[in-house]
Amino acid sequence: MQHLRLVLKDVWYLTRPYFMSEERGRAWALLLGVLALTFSLVGIDLVQSFARNVYYTALQQRDVKTFLRGLFWYVRSESGAIIPGFFPVAAPALLMGVYLPYLQQLLQLRWRRWLTRRMTAQWLENQTYYRIALVTSGLEAGADNPDQRIQEDINSFISDTLTQFVNFVTNVVTLFSYAGLLWTLSGPLVVLGITIPGYFFWAALVYSVFATWVTHLVGHRLAGLQFLQQRTEANLRYGLVHVRDNAEGIALYRGEAEEKAGLEHAFSAVYDNFLAIMRRTRMLGLLTTGLEVISGNFALLVGSIRYFANKMTFGTLMQMVMAFSRVQGAMGWFSTSYASLATWHAEVARLATFQRVMDRARAMEGECRVIPAAAGADMVLRDLTVLRPDGTVMLDHVSMTLRHGGMTVISAPSGTGKSTLFRVIAGIWPFARGEIERPDTPMMFVPQRPYLPVGSLRRAVCYPMADTQVDDAHMRTALAAVGLERLLPLLDEEAPWGQTLSPGEQQRLAFARILVARPAWVFLDESTSSLDATAEGMLYALLRQECPGITIVSITHRASLLAAHDTCITLQSP
Ligand SMILES: Nc1ncnc2c1ncn2[C@@H]1O[C@H](COP(=O)(O)OP(=O)(O)OP(=O)(O)O)[C@@H](O)[C@H]1O
Q: What is the ipTM of this complex?
């Protein structure tokens, strides 16, 4: 019960924002439409059971007139009420049957659009996509694959939530209305001098509880197996993706045999578990089919007692048999839907965790005060303490001035926190205290492995600007100047450039990007580590010559480059 409360709390947490959003009018209208059609269809079915009662009795009495009028026009029930016949309600029922899934899908699609936009925006806002890794261990279920959360889980969460909700409502309404019908129709039965009122209702209840309990005994393990199936499939997929992502390393080590064994192991888990699911499903199938066969005859047997005693018409007997099967079906839904409920529960949990992690990452406020300074001012770092995500100190009370227009190099042993200092200045590392006076002017941070977006080479050179914003001739000149003239004919080619260009070429491309964007400050974090000293010197000289007045702050371990800078700041570990 506690567990159910937690799941419902998560569902509410994920559902509420949409139904309170600016699209709430349409959302509620569609939901109410879906509910209205659901109720109407159950209602029509219930009313039709009375019409069938009359047809069957007419059939038994060979009363052609009542039978045909009932089929094509209307019937009068025993109490004298007029009930539309089969054909008059067939058309509206058909339309409702078609429009129910349509409205449900429309709601699903609109909700998905809204939630995808919202989650994508939240994920990209304030570098949340980057911070998520800082606020979680990375292994927290739900925070691991944001791409899968946004593309797959949103859709399945919405679709399954709506389906479970509609099924739940349908089955509850069916159960109560048909149980009530059974109670009214069945009448009393006298057994050994004791009168049992609504005996058919009680018989149906006892039978349904028994059938539900037996089904539960056989079926409940299916939920766990389905859950495990998702996990084994995910492990297999992860194994395959891992090989793709590390293709070069595996190829160089000739690690195919080891990888193959790992993948085979992952697949055998998928295979074995699916086999277990099949066996369990077979058992469940045998049981449910058996119960279905029994239940039809059970209903006839129990119902016929009053029929043979001449206290009930044939039509009423048939109506009771139908009501019994509806009650059975509704009870059956509650007992056999674990598999789908377990899958749905897993989706809810993953998406809710992702949303919580995003909320946490977004709410994370750094304690470092950033004071905007004039565009031409120096950058001043005062009393800056930088921490790791676990709270341990990386840099303790660091103060420095980075001169405007100067060339400063920051050096320190590996792991001291040089790159993290750049992250603090860039404003993406929230674990810092102190003060930064930051000139209000365009800055560019260039990591050791520059990021290359998916798409054309032109896009890669212009990034983060759109290629339409950049003058073509200017871009070509920049590319040629950094020594990449061989790439000029390939500018419009789409390729995985991050894999096809050598690390040195990628670093040259990053310099072309600086020449294109012309920031006032550039932070180079070992941005020439894959180049030889001559190429490195040429690129630095190019920056000074093409972007006069540019401020350069570098991180490097190379002595040759240290000498090229006018100021050197050495960081100390605490
Ligand atoms: N995302 C992160 N999560 C946890 N710890 C991190 C993270 N990024 C960096 N660190 C830790 O912070 C410390 C400093 O890392 P940083 O990369 O800033 O050092 P560095 O001086 O630039 O090293 P190198 O010269 O090797 O590039 C290291 O101990 C590293 O493990």
A: 0.95
